[in-house]
Amino acid sequence: MTNYDSLPDTSRVWIYQANQPISKEKALKIQERLEAFTQQWTAHSHALRAYGEIRNHRFIILMVDESQAGASGCSIDKSVHFVQQLEREFDLNLFDRMNFAYLEKEELKAASREEFAQLYADEKINDETLVFDNLIKNKGEFDTAWVKKLGESWHQRMV
User: Fold this and answer.
1) Is the pTM of this model over 0.70?
2) β-strands 49-55, 59-65 pairing
3) Domain housing 138
4) Would residue 84 count as lying in a domain?
């Protein structure tokens, strides 16, 4: 597996948020699968410089340096099938884009779109609340803008 620090800021990123915290035991097994997958991930028979990790016991992150070989439709399909396999094997939902993660003090919380809007209406969260923007596109954005204030995020449209 490629080292995180060796990937350029232009590396493409996919973030999958679990519907529940991933236990330490499951995280270790998933990390092993991520390492094996990223080592053999190819696009048109060219090895991809790829990286995968679990963050905060909630997020599965895949990155690809496309400067040497781009992630093609087929290779992206392989990654989606791989993540779907993780879902089945570890009883997770990783494709619900309307499950929002945010920080309450130092604690990572998640809420459905409806719950998130209600939290905002009840003033339990506000425009200063830190949210996770899982729609970012590259490593540079991941490093600088993955976590941002709700008022500066697309999440604002959902409240």
Assistant:
1) yes
2) antiparallel
3) 99-158
4) yes
